[in-house]
Structures are given as structure tokens and as C-alpha cells.
């Protein structure tokens, strides 16, 4: 298939336009990927710093004697509740389902 002079006058400018559009589309894709990478890096950094901060707070809380006292009291209360539950006797039929039908 051969192109005539008049057809070339139309075809060549269209190829330049098509090339520009393809290049712009590639640039948009690259820009989108760059933005996504930047957002991901920012999120990773945020997670990393928040993890470090929470570990520091945990260490500070462990050093506080009030927390240790409170934990000790809670543990004692739990142990007392367990002893009370063990010492309770079950009623022979209350709370149990008996089917008396037929």
C-alpha cells in the first residue's frame, strides 16, 4: 500500500499527535506510581514511629509501682473468685433440663 502526497500531509501530523498522547499517558502512569510509593513510604514510617512510641510507653508503664499494685490486686481478686466458684456446690436439679414428656 503506497501513500500519496496528500495522504502523507494528513498521516504525519496524526502520528505526532498520537505519539504525544502515548507519552503523556506514560508520564501519568509514572506520576501515579511515584505518588503511591511516596504514600506507602509515609505510611511505613508512621507505623514504625508509632510502634516505637508504644514500646516506650509500655516500658514506662511497667516501671510505675501503681500499675504493679493494681495488677497484684486484680490477680488476688481473680484467685478469690476462682476459689469461691470451686467451693460452690451445684444444685442437683436447678439449671438442668429434664424432659418429662412421653
UniProtKB/TrEMBL annotation:
<protein>
    <recommendedName>
        <fullName>RNA polymerase subunit sigma</fullName>
    </recommendedName>
</protein>
<feature type="region of interest" description="Disordered">
    <location>
        <begin position="49"/>
        <end position="102"/>
    </location>
</feature>
<feature type="compositionally biased region" description="Basic and acidic residues">
    <location>
        <begin position="49"/>
        <end position="85"/>
    </location>
</feature>
Amino acid at each position: 500500500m503506497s501513500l500519496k502526497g496528500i495522504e502523507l500531509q494528513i498521516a504525519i501530523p496524526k502520528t505526532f499527535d498520537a505519539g504525544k498522547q502515548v507519552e503523556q499517558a506514560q508520564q501519568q502512569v509514572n506520576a501515579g506510581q511515584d505518588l503511591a510509593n511516596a504514600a506507602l513510604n509515609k505510611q511505613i514510617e508512621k507505623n514504625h514511629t508509632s510502634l516505637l512510641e508504644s514500646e516506650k510507653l509500655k516500658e514506662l508503664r511497667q516501671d510505675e509501682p501503681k500499675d504493679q499494685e493494681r495488677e497484684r490486686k486484680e490477680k488476688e481478686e481473680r484467685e478469690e473468685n476462682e476459689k469461691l466458684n470451686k467451693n460452690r456446690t451445684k444444685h442437683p436439679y436447678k439449671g438442668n433440663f429434664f424432659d418429662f414428656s412421653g
